[in-house]
Amino acid sequence: SITEIEDNEEDLTTRAPIVTVMGHVDHGKTSLLDYIREENVIAGESGGITQHIGAYGVQLKNGQKIAFLDTPGHEAFTAMRARGAQVTDLAIIVIAADDDVMPQTKEAISHAQAAGVPIIFAINKVDREAANPERIKEALAQMNLLVEDWGGKIQSHDISAKTGQGVEELLEKVLLEAELLDLKANPDKPAVGTVVEAFLDKGRGYVSTVLVQAGTLRIGDYVLAGRNHGKVKAMQDERGKNVDVAGPSTPVSILGLDGAPTAGDKFHVFEDEKEAKDIASKRTQLQREQSVRTQKT
Length: 297
Ligand code: GDP
Hints:
The protein is of the alpha+beta class. Helices cover about 25% and strands about 30% of the residues. It binds guanosine-5'-diphosphate (GDP).
């Protein structure tokens, strides 16, 4: 079994919030994620985020960081939750101001609420003639979701993912909400986290994007992720730049695993390579037995 190291209070340091964007189809989730990705470049770095690795980190002008799961839609959110992974600290729920609070909006709200994840509403497409943000806020109020403008506690901001209007302020509200959550992690221990996505690349082999949640991941670390394992040969950030270390709330794609783990799989760094291999082969064996059993019934 895998035992996680208990942290002492004094070992914990503030970490960046991890944010998921959800909402009804066509309300602008992808546009918002794209806009944020293109506009926010780590200070001092040239060039934007070029790789789509399923997650990315941004640093705002004030130096604060936010990590985004770049898999819009609540399918990814629920798939991860179904595997026991709780990676999201905050949910941005996008609602088009020229439409209504739609069924998938309501679903997204209940998913976030069930997970105990605070919601921030992004009332989108305010650049459109037909946009009526107040009507959306009223509809939310009728669902007992009172936004700040309406005397409630839920943050919301009017934005346009197309022109960028309000996006910076939205991100400031994300940071404000994150501050209230007092998010902390111990960076000084073997890394643990969650797999965001993984695929086989013709030239590079298996590439797995992981989100480090605690500890620090380093090149040369031996990783177990679901049924897969291997030594981290290289790590890249969302710019395709090689990095040597990845601390808490950092998304990074790693090379070196013997296969593609599933989104939502936990990963752990092992000091003992053999132990990691043993657990991986036990999990593979278990999987085989389960599939034989389902074939028989
Ligand atoms: P998703 O399905 O929620 O990911 O929605 P998309 O980001 O794909 O957006 C759906 C459509 O709405 C696309 O044609 C976008 O260009 C458009 N769109 C998204 N945000 C805005 C916005 O703020 N203003 C306007 N005018 N169009 C937008």
